[in-house]
Design brief:
A two-stranded antiparallel sheet has the order 1-2. The protein has a single domain (2-174), classed as CDP-alcohol phosphotransferase transmembrane (TM) domain (Four Helix Bundle (Hemerythrin (Met), subunit A), Up-down Bundle), CATH 1.20.120.1760. It starts with a helix and ends with a helix. The protein has helices at residues 2-9, 11-31, 35-58, 64-89, 96-102, 104-118, 133-145, 152-166, 185-199, 209-236, and strands at residues 127-129, 171-173. Helix 2 (11-31) runs parallel beside helix 4 and helix 7 packs antiparallel against helix 8 (152-166). By secondary structure, the protein is an all-alpha fold. It is an enzyme of class 2 (transferase).
Length: 237
């Protein structure tokens, strides 16, 4: 029984480690010139990140280990991996200067995460202070994924803006009162469905994981939506 309890409580951490591994794989794909694969893996990491915290609360497995692990995974998947991707697709032409500029993104992101972790007001759940690194990294991955349709100057401006928006004092709604997983859910769901449609039939070129992760994520969203609505209905009866 004790072994079973430990196994259940480790499930959220497995999702967090999966998120971290997606970040590592994304860096590898970017270094080998497979930029679409790299971007897709960041987006899959975004899906996993939106699930681990909810699973921890559902399974009563909240803990300091999970929180610290989540922050470390976020720095890699949504900080380091997008900065590598941006460098290899846009900033490489500026040489060492481009690498230095790309490196600013994980620095600002790490600072933002550290500030969030020690914040005494984060328990309000109404808003985030500054743009979350998950949203910023996911949007950069999306920009590079469809980079042929977007001028480089636009990506550069958005990259620079996110660096400062992450450490700004701007209040960003958290949407935690919406009966779905945390920020970025609707965007991620729409993006996941779009990616499945766009890359369906190109199994040899893109990670097989995308065809597993997206249906599982949609199923998780449906479960969360039905569960929360059922709970709210019982409370009002």
């Amino acid at each position: 029984m004790q072994m079973r309890t430990r196994l259940i409580k480790s499930i959220p951490n497995m999702f967090t480690l999966g998120n971290l591994f997606c970040g590592f794989l994304s860096i590898g794909f970017a270094a080998s010139g497979q930029y679409s694969n790299a971007a897709i893996l960041i987006l899959i990491g975004m899906m996993l990140d939106s699930m681990d915290g909810r699973l921890a609360r559902m399974l009563n497995a909240d803990g300091e280990l999970g929180k610290e692990l989540d922050s470390l995974a976020d720095v890699v998947t949504f900080g380091v991996a997008p900065s590598f991707l941006i460098y290899y697709t846009y900033f490489f032409q500026f040489g060492i200067l481009g690498m230095a500029i790309a490196g600013l993104f994980p620095l600002f992101g790490a600072y933002r995460l550290a500030r969030f972790n020690i914040s005494t007001t984060k328990s309000s759940g109404k808003y985030f202070t500054g743009v979350p690194i998950t949203a910023a990294g996911g949007i950069l991955a999306l920009l590079t994924l469809f980079g042929d349709l977007i001028p480089q100057i636009v990506t550069t401006v958005i990259f620079t803006a996110f660096c400062f928006l992450m450490v700004s004092k701007i209040k960003i709604p958290s949407f935690k009162d919406v009966p779905l997983p945390k920020y970025g859910t609707i965007v991620t769901l729409f993006l996941g469905a779009s990616l499945f449609i766009v890359y369906k039939g190109t199994y040899a070129q893109y990670p097989y994981l995308i065809y597993i992760a997206i249906p599982l994520y949609i199923a998780f969203l449906a479960y969360r939506f039905v569960r929360v609505r059922g709970k709210n209905r019982r409370e009002t009866d």
